Amino acid sequence: MAEKATSGSDTRPEPAWFGDRPVDAAEKPGLVRGVFDSVAGRYDLMNDLMSGGVHRLWKRAMLDRLAPKKGEVFLDVAGGTGDIAFRILERTEREAKVIVCDLTPAMLEVGRDRATDRGILAGIEWVTGDAENLPFESATMDGCTIAFGLRNVTHPDRALAEMHRVLKPGGRFLCLEFSHVVLTGLRDLYDVYSRSMLPTLGALVARDRASYEYLVESIRRFPTQEALAAMMREAGFDLVSFRNLSGGIAALHAGWRT
């Protein structure tokens, strides 16, 4: 368990948060796995319902910025159901390789089943792994993506450093994540919607209100756009930028390894 120093020789545990609940840092990955074990089968349906399908436009913007090319190798972190991986293969006419790395085996199982249903039997590798300790060699990926996953990581700074490590020089990193609304009127409406409607949808569709209460809380605790950009620079990324989507409901962050 990570610790930080106080006065003298005293130490105290570094705080970790599971939504609005403080937890032991070592406990959080298991709690996150529990959430996604519960919602895996209805995760993509819930994304459609929660965003009114707008997440598809956000992901299109992400792929536009990634600009995947034939023959390249991509790592999609926390992408268990395969949504980003399928889009990369579609853009490259199935002539790229995508490695999907996810903490939760149940999410990867959903992704494998979806790939089989689509007739995708090659081009994707499914790996169970931790974003803070990626099981890949350094400088082996042309691109790295993470969509709606960074806020679930116990130590986002460590995950960012790992994703920077596995990129080749010249490799690009894209992070799509729910963020902080920048339009005042929209901010108030979104606050009401996310606090009341999202957990209700979770209860009705995924039969799991508690998991979607956690997801709403995790969005609110996530760093601001500017703070995440600063974290990316600290992790070693260059040419860091971000673009607000739908008034800041989501944001697309980009960075390069030089």
Structure in words:
This protein is an alpha/beta fold and about 260 residues long. The chain has one domain: 3-Layer(aba) Sandwich (Rossmann fold), CATH 3.40.50. About 45% of the residues lie in helices and about 25% in strands. It is built from 9 helices and 11 strands. Strands 7-6-5-8-9-11-10 form a 7-stranded mixed sheet, sandwiched between helices. Helix 2 packs antiparallel against helix 7 and helix 7 runs antiparallel to helix 8. The longest helix has 23 residues. The chain is globular.
Keywords for this structure?
disordered N terminus, 43% helix, alpha/beta, Rossmann fold, 7-stranded mixed beta sheet, 11 strands, single chain, 258 residues, two-stranded antiparallel ribbon
Task: Give a quick summary of the entry.
It is built from nine helices and eleven strands.
CATH class: Alpha Beta
Helix content: 40-55%
Structural class: alpha/beta
* Tally of alpha and pi helices: 9
How many structural domains can be distinguished in the coordinates?
1
Strand order of the largest sheet: 7-6-5-8-9-11-10
Q: CATH superfamily, please?
A: Vaccinia Virus protein VP39
Share in β-strands: 15-25%
Q: What's the rounded overall pLDDT mean? A: 90
Order of SSEs: EEEEHHHEHEHEEHEHHHEE
Q: What does the main sheet amount to?
A: 7 strands, mixed
Query: What is the CATH topology?
Result: Rossmann fold
